[in-house]
Amino acid sequence: MMKVCSDVPSLRELTAGWRQQKQRIAFVPTMGNLHDGHLSLVEIAARHADRVVVSIYVNPLQFAPGEDFDTYPRTLQDDLDRLRPLKVDAVFTPDNSIMYPQGEQQCTYIEVPGLSDILEGECRPGFFRGVATVVLKLFNMVQPDVAVFGEKDFQQLLVIRKMVRDLDLPIEIIGGPIRREADGLAMSSRNQYLGKTDRQKSPVLSETLARMRDLIINGADIEQTRAEACKQLEDNGFTVDYLTLREAETLREVKTASDCTGCEVVILAVARLSGTRLLDNLKFRLS
Ligand code: PAF
Q1: Which of 18, 121, 178, 272 could serve as a FRET partner for 68 with CA atoms 20 to 30 Å apart?
Q2: Taking a C-beta distance cutoff of 8 angstroms, is the pair 284, 263 a contact?
Q3: At 202, which CATH number?
Q4: Would you call 38 a catalytic residue per the annotation?
Q5: C-alpha of residue 154 to centroid of ligand 1, in Å
Q6: Which of 31, 38, 46, 153 is the catalytic position?
Q7: How far is the CA of 30 from the centre of ligand 1 (A)?
Q8: What is the pTM of this model?
Q9: d(CA 190, CA 215)
Q10: 75-116: per-residue pLDDT in tens?
Q11: What pLDDT, in 10s, does the model give residues 2-50?
């Protein structure tokens, strides 16, 4: 039966029992408002361990003033109903007094240098510090053997992998593929902010990424293709925060195919429709 724990001692009591029985624990951290993308991460977790813990916590430390912390959709009862039919053993639902007893501004922070300062980190200063800090705290509370993060937040996944490597955490990190709506829009809790017209336009983002990938694979000039893709998005009403081709492992910028022959690359994009930021990415290999 799925247990719901909102404090650390009751979570630890459960996980200590599992560990005593030599059971492997998988962890899926979330901010709730669960959609099929989250549920697919839970299914991956269940394939890699004997026990699955999901956390639901909207982390104030990763929201800047003026962002959507107050309005972020909180749907705990629906989330629990969605998790119950799955192989989930425990849902951890801490509040701010558990996560940051002295307030989040007084907390010891985790900084993952380099990767945290570019792209999403440049658009949202302090964001990855907030993510890395809460994820390390959650890791310490759950003590999982394996943790699953969505590849939709591609840069976040790399930041977590680096933190785990740098701090020698004995946790295997697995990336779960992006789940998309039927028209190609990458699933995200923030998609519900889109009005009807913007929702209709939104698949242009994934279409643009797919076209950009096909052109680059067929030898088109990367810079020219990128500039045309930006223009296409802007012509469709998007404001582009960034659209860039990067080496998938390091996020080093790739400007010409010869920069990166044979390597795995990723197109990373963030574009806004009426203020709603849509993140998407597409990974492929250069020949
Ligand atoms: O990806 C998210 O939902 C959040 O950034 C995470 C990893 C749960 C940390 O708050």
Answers
A1: 178
A2: no
A3: 3.30.1300.10
A4: yes
A5: 12
A6: 38
A7: 5
A8: 0.98
A9: 30
A10: 999 999 999 999 999 999 999 999 999 999 999 999 999 999
A11: 999 999 999 999 999 999 999 999 999 999 999 999 999 999 999 999 9
